[in-house]
Amino acid sequence: MSWRARYPPPGVGGGRVGGGGGGSGMHQVAGANSSFQPRNSTFQNHQRPPAPSFQNNFQQQWLPRGQLSAGESSVDEVEKTVQSEATESKLQGWKAELNLPPKDTRYRTEDVTATKGNEFEDYFLKRELLMGIYEKGFERPSPIQEESIPIALTGSDILARAKNGTGKTAAFCIPALEKINQEKNAIQVVILVPTRELALQTAQVCKELGKHLMIQVMVTTGGTSLKDDIMRLHQPVHLLVGTPGRILDLTRKGVCILNECNMLAMDEADKLLSQEFQPSVEQLIRFMPANRQILMFSATFPVTVKDFRDRYLNKPHVINLMDELTLKGVTQYYAFVEERQKVHCLNTLFSKLQINQSIIFCNSVNRVELLAKKITELGYSCFYIHAKMLQAHRNRVFHDFRNGACRNLVSTDLFTRGIDIQSVNVVINFDFPKNSETYLHRVGRSGRFGHLGLAVNLITYEDRFSVHKIEAELNTELKQIPPQIDKDIYCR
Ligand SMILES: Nc1ncnc2c1ncn2[C@@H]1O[C@H](COP(=O)(O)OP(=O)(O)OP(=O)(O)O)[C@@H](O)[C@H]1O
Ligand SMILES: [Mg+2]
């Protein structure tokens, strides 16, 4: 596929192939970081197509257990015996029959490898669910999955905090899928998330994990046709994933019935308890049975969550795997620049770094669009995304970026939380964020599942207070960017 962007804006810049113009003859980035000079660089321009994504794309080869004896009535007894023996051995060898994805052999940090040694089979999950888990490429549970899956299966409420990219999604989706009774035509689980893109992503994870189950997953968010959702809800739905406003709307209309919904999972729970969402979330809970189970997950839990927890959770099991706040695999640097030099600095980064895919964060919609235009003019392939775009454009950008159609994505905080694109190895804060939660989530878009990543922060004089505050709150130190960056620290 050509690296030239295929669509006109919105969302899509029309960049040239790889790292072309603008990379050479650059001026030194002034300010404190005088050593960060392209002229002395030993780096080549390493803009190359991103590695194939690790998303799975399987053919189903296995028949659900209930279908194994289909057609038996027409065979004689001997054939029956032979068949049942074959079936038996097939069942015993069910693992050998799995359609597993290629092994991800990249280096992984302790954030995901420091487990207790549990296996998914230890949790007595339905075989069809286990098959989906293994076929998704999960070999064994990550630390947060080890802590939460068995507890969630007991029906207990959970408040869980774990680092970005360590597998929180499956930590609530696996028990949700296990608990759903597929014979019962009712919404039994609702998963709430704060953004539409995250809703699409999470619904996809549920479908992949549950691909051998007969569970109907529906995704519903604002920005799409309400009528289509109403029609869809006339068909069976077991698991509903969506943003709070739309689900509340459908529930109030009496189309979405939640009186048999016994599980509510709140992903990015602290964000869902911000002023923007909390009233809708609370109203939704009132439509659910009194004994519903609530699972709350996030990498960040400010104290504001306490009030909600006291009012709605029943003796929750608290999990906190965040003794250390930042990801072990993500190296964080800053480059001290003046505002007008930021684009030059970015250009230098593009020419020096080995970017597989990058997300570049700006603090406003306007700046996202302006920067995407600049990047395109510099000759790099670039898409952009923000919440003011039409949903259809947002979806296209998200889908195409995920599939590696473009190397760089400029975004507002729309993509700060939960978005999981394994081939993103570099995050650039073109604008430095104002608070530590945002910083943590943005940086966590790289280094997914213990992989290595790089975060570069372009910092101006005005940002100095935010930098100190965030460093103190996260107990971390941003290092000044060196003239050369060893690619082993973010590409291994
Ligand atoms: N047990 C596992 N084995 C291998 N890969 C896994 C496992 N669990 C999750 N993953 C993969 O790890 C990646 C990150 O998972 P996920 O998005 O759930 O992280 P997260 O903790 O929700 O991160 P964030 O806080 O950024 O939302 C995904 O690509 C997922 O497929
Ligand atoms: Mg997540």
What does this structure look like?
ATP-dependent RNA helicase involved in mRNA turnover, and more specifically in mRNA decapping. InterPro entries: DEAD/DEAH_box_helicase_dom, Helicase_ATP-bd, Helicase_C-like, P-loop_NTPase, RNA_helicase_DEAD_Q_motif. The chain has 2 domains: 110-320, Rossmann fold (3-Layer(aba) Sandwich); 325-491, Rossmann fold. It contains 17 helices and 14 strands. The radius of gyration is 24 Å and the shape is globular. The relative contact order is 0.17. β10, α14 (391-402) and β11 form a beta-alpha-beta unit. 33% of the residues lie in helices and 13% in strands. It has 492 residues and is α/β, with parallel strands linked by helices. The strands form 2 sheets. It has a 7-stranded parallel beta sheet, sandwiched between helices. It has a 7-stranded parallel beta sheet with strand order 10-11-9-12-13-8-14, with helices on both faces. α5 (168-179) packs across α6. It has helices at 77-92, 110-113, 127-135, 143-153, 168-179, 196-209, 226-232, 244-252, 269-272, 278-286, 305-312, 342-352, 365-378, 391-402, 436-443, 464-474, 488-491; strands at 158-161, 189-192, 217-220, 239-242, 263-267, 293-298, 317-320, 330-336, 358-361, 382-385, 408-411, 426-429, 453-459, 479-480. Bound molecules: adenosine-5'-triphosphate and magnesium ion. Adenosine-5'-triphosphate (ATP) is lined by residues 137-139, 141-142, 145, 162, 164-170, 299, 418, 420, 422, 444, 448-449.
